[in-house]
Every structure is written in C-alpha cells, then in structure tokens.
Amino acid sequence: MLTNAIMVLAGFILLIKGADFFVSGSASLARKLGIPSLVVGLTVISIGTSAPELFVNLIAAVQGSTALSIGNVLGSNFADILLGLGLAALFTPLALQKGTVWKEIPFSLLAGFMILVFGSDLLLDGTLPNIITRSEGIALLALFVVFIVYTFGVKQPGEQPEEHIEVHSSNKTLGLILSGVAGLAIGGFITVEGAVGLAEGFGISQNLIGLTVVAAGTSLPEIITSIQAARKGHIDLVVGGIVGTIIFNALFVLGVTALVRPLPFAADSLTDAFAVMGATFLLFLSLFIGRKNHLGKTEGTIMLLLYFAYIIFAVVRG
After folding, report:
1. How far is CA 260 from CA 52, 170, 245, 318, in A?
2. Which of 78, 184, 210, 262 could pair with 68 in a Cys bridge, judged by C-beta atoms 3.0 to 4.6 Å apart?
3. Residue 278 in contact with residue 80, Cβ under 8 Å?
4. Exposed/middle/buried for 64, CB within 10 Å: 0-12, 13-18, 19+?
5. Residue 124 CB neighbour total at 10 angstroms
6. Distance (Å, rounded) from C-alpha 240 to C-alpha 10?
7. What's the rounded mean pLDDT across residues 263-285?
C-alpha cells in the first residue's frame, strides 16, 4: 500500500516536471519557427498544462483501466472549476472578459452536455451499456477542432496578454521536448500503476481513485498556475486558462482516450458528469450575481465548500 502511494506521488512529480519541460521546449520551438505569441498561448501552453491528464488517460486506456480514465477527466475538470478558481478568487477578485463569459464558458457547457449525451445510452434510447464509442470520440475531437478554429477567429492580439516565452538554443529546445515527453510517459505509467494498486488495496473503485487522488494530482499544474497568476494580478490568464483546460480535457483528452478504447460510462460516472456540468453552470450564473463578471471571495468560498462536499459524497458513495 505504501509502495503504491509513493508510486503515485513520484508519478505526479514526473508528470508536473515533464509538462513544464515540454511546454518550455515546445514554446521555444514555436517562437523559433516564427509562430506569434497569441497562437503559442492558445495552443502549446494550454495543451501543455493538460498533458498530465492526457498521458495518464492514454496509459490507463491502453491498460484497460477505463474507469480511471473517466474519473480522471471528470475529477480534473471539477477540481479546476471549483478548487482552482475558488482558491484563486480568495487571493484577488477575478474580473472576466466579455468573451470568456459569453463564448468560452458556454462552449465548456456544450462540451459537458455532449459527454452527458454520449454517456447516457440507457437514459436516451434504452440500450446498454452506457459507453462513449470511438465514433463519439471522433465527434468530441471534431468539436475540439471547431473550438480551436473559433478561438483563433474571435481572439485578437490585444485581447490576450502576451506570453513571456524564453527562446533556447536548438539543442536545449530539443532536450526539453524529449525530456518532457519522457517525464510525462514515465510519470503517467507510474501514476496509473500506483493508482490501480491503491484502488485494489483499499477496495474502492478505479473511478473514485481517478476522481479524487489522480485528478487532484493531474490538476496541480492548472491550479498552481491559476493561484500564481491571481497573486501577480494576471486576472485574464486565470479564468481563461481554467476554462480552456476544461474544454481541452472534455473534448480532446476524452476524445483521444475513446479512440484508444471505448469508455464504459457507469452510473457513478454519469452522476459525476452531471456534477461537472452543474459546477460549470454555477460558474456562469455566479458572474451575474453581485458584481457582474466578477468572482470574489464569497463566490470562491462557496466553490471550495461545494468541491469538498462533493468529494466527501463521492468517498461515502464508494
């Protein structure tokens, strides 16, 4: 049991450092190729922060631990919304751009709705099992492409803060990318092995261990980035980064995972998907309560309480 816990912790460290190296190397390569900062910020850096979820999910799917994959995505999105934004809002009020409120958050609601539809076969057409098929995975990826094209279409250089990107030598850039991928792959493998061992040791479901322990670890890059951005006053990066990650996880990570192996959607996973959808809708509604387009300490406190309340519910549920 202790060995499994150490494996999970070591896996998290490798995942986080691997993602950091991968982002640094990829961003440096992009700038060497003359790609604008706006494009780098919307693609390389956003994707890099979600790399831990992606690698954990792919490895879990290859090994047949599909419940862990689903729990990881849903738990990560739940943690990003309520825990990440909740903690950031405690440091400073979060003012949102109009584009985030009316375009990106509604798009994240659409992504959550699609997951609910694809995972509700029994509810919608009376067939079993509930499963996200490969064709539905392709549909999720297609919507992700639409989101990327849409984002590039509506974002203007002045709307998003310029990313400070350090350009390294060619050898260092290549070394960072390769080291990052290696760290992500090894970290993902160790995390999955340790998490499955913990689930078996405690006699709990892989979905629960993915929803709680694994999701908390893979969400750390986004949560830490959000808190640091809030403390430094980079408010636009906080909510925009979190919402972008939610969409990436729901559409790209889950879509790619479903291509590797169709994902059975158990009743608990359906409940968790409704919870994520509810948290996203709560985020949208909270922007119209009190100071418009702002998340303050009150909203942040409520988000944190809701997060821990649901985690307790999930643990009791088993």
Report:
1. 17, 33, 21, 27
2. 210
3. no
4. exposed
5. 12
6. 29
7. 89
Antiparallel, parallel or unpaired: β 94-95 and 131-132: unpaired
**Is the confidence at residue 269, as pLDDT, over 80?**
yes
Q: Is the pLDDT of residue 233 over 80?
A: no
**At 230, is the pLDDT very low, low, confident or very high (cuts 50, 70, 90)?**
confident
Main-chain phi, psi angles of 95, to 5 degrees: -95, 130
Spacing of C-alpha 229 from chain mean position: 17
Which candidate, 80, 151, 89, places its Cα nearest to that of 112?
A: 80
Q: Are 8 and 191 in contact (CB under 8 A)?
A: yes
* 121 residue type, one letter: D
Neighbour tally for 142: CB within 10 Å: 12
**CA gyration radius for the chain?**
19
- What is the reported pTM? 0.85
Q: Are 49 and 225 in contact (CB under 8 A)?
A: yes
Q: Residue 11 and residue 213: Cα distance in Å, rounded?
A: 12
How many angstroms separate the CA atoms of 233 and 161, rounded?
12
Task: Give 80's contacts (C-beta < 8 A, 6+ positions apart).
Answer: 219, 222, 223, 242, 245, 246, 249
Short-list 313, 295, 317, CA closest to 82? 295
- Which CATH number, 1.20.1420.30, 3.30.10.20, 2.60.40.1220, 1.20.1250.20, labels domain 2-317? 1.20.1420.30
Strands (E), the chain: 94-95, 131-132, 263-264, 294-295
| The pair of three-digit structure tokens given for residue 64, joined into one six-digit string | 């047949």
Say which residue the tokens 């067939």 belong to.
127
DSSP state of 203: T
Query: Could you give the C-alpha distances from 144 to 75, 140, 251, in angstroms and in order?
Result: 20, 6, 6
Q: Enter the tokens of residue 80.
A: 């990003």
